[in-house]
Amino acid sequence: MTRNNLIAELCQNHKGSVSLLKEMIVAAKESGIKYLKIQDIKSKELTHRIRFDKGLIKDKKRLVIKRPYKDELLRLKKLDLPEKFIDIFIEECLRSKIYPIVTPFTYSSLDRIKNKNFKFLKIASYDCSAFPFIEETSALNKKLIVSTGATKLKEIKETVKFLKRRKQLAALLHCVSIYPTPMDKCNLNKIKLLKKIFGNIKIGWSDHSKFQDCGHAPALASIIVGGSFIERHFTIVKKDKTKDGPVSINPNEAKTLLSLINKKKSYILDYLKKNYKDWELCLGIGSHKLTHEELLNRDYYRGRFASTVKDKYNFNWQLKKN
Fold first, then answer.
1. Is pLDDT above 90 for 55?
2. Is residue 320 a part of any domain in this protein?
3. Cα 95 to Cα 208: distance, rounded to the nearest angstrom
4. How many domains are there within the chain?
5. Which of 135, 164, 216, 282 is packed most tightly, with the most Cβ within 10 A?
6. 124 closest CA partner among 78, 159, 162
7. What is the mean pLDDT of residues 238-263?
8. pLDDT tens digits, residue range 110-140?
């Protein structure tokens, strides 16, 4: 992949509809998108952790995110796709000459995607430190793209070391685990830091900024600081109709972004200066220090989904159980 490629993330903007999923793939093709990603999420794999039902105080300085299990389960059930959706997704992508990518969230998910014709597998930010899960994922013999949001630098280094040894690391994605990510929290200079640490590894940007507020500024600025490619949520429905809508781009916005990232950096820089007077806010200082909000999100999302073995959760940081 080069910097001229956009990974469009469908997330759950499909609203649990196969027909809408197919329409999204066609729209992605017409927009010029070459890499399309889906998440293998099953509502039945949502974990029930009582402390998040109540949002109890974890200690005197930090609160636990309040996300009641029953409410979240009800929301996710409406978004479940049928069992064969992975095959449908791959078939439709290949028909449209698009490379399919998937994010597995559990050990059971790895079983579902085994031997499937995916171009890459994506490791979500909260699994970047789940080394047993990464090892099991690498056993599927696909190149891995790894997000680094809410992950400690030591953990990223360990993951990179393992995947480089197996020659399976396609890229790292700088990611800020704040949804949506404000312009001044994007910290895109961290791409420079990761490039300095990891040398010739491709570094990209997983963009969760709110398009209404930030437009294409963070995505374009990521190229200025050396990013190789961009991951962006994608939707074809009105942005207020899905949870991920506000941080998504539609087909026309995707076309615009693709036309811009194919330009020279000097052109992109001039475009940023002309169209986004505050664009430099998204550069940050390049520090790896995790913010308070990222730590809260790490606490909640790490372990949000898990396989169940003998009525017990098999979390991704644990060895796989049979």
1. no
2. no
3. 29
4. 1
5. 282
6. 159
7. 96
8. 999 999 999 999 999 999 999 999 999 999 9
Angstrom distance (rounded) from CA 100 to CA 115: 13
CATH number at residue 25: 3.20.20.70
Quick one: pLDDT band at residue 5, thresholds 50, 70, 90?
confident
**Banded pLDDT at 99 (limits 50, 70, 90):** very high
Please choose, from the candidates 262, 248, 261, the residue with its C-alpha nearest in 3D space to the C-alpha of residue 222.
261
User: Residue 2's pLDDT is what?
Assistant: 47
Residues belonging to the chain: 322
Cα radius of gyration (the chain)? 19
CB proximity list for 312: less than 8 A, separation 6 or greater: none
Range of the domain at 145: 6-314
Angle between helices 251-261 and 217-224 (to 10 degrees): 20
Structure tokens at 300: 């909640």
Average pLDDT over residues 264-280: 97
267: number of Cβ within 10 Å? 11
pLDDT for the residue numbered 225: 96
Is residue 262 assigned to a domain? yes
Which distant-in-sequence residues (6+ apart) come within 8 Å of 303 by Cβ?
47, 49, 126, 313, 315, 316, 317
Q: Which among 85, 75, 125, 89 has a CA at the least distance from the CA of 105?
A: 125
Q: Is residue 266 part of a domain?
A: yes
HEC string of 123-140 equals ECHHHCCCHHHHHHHHCC
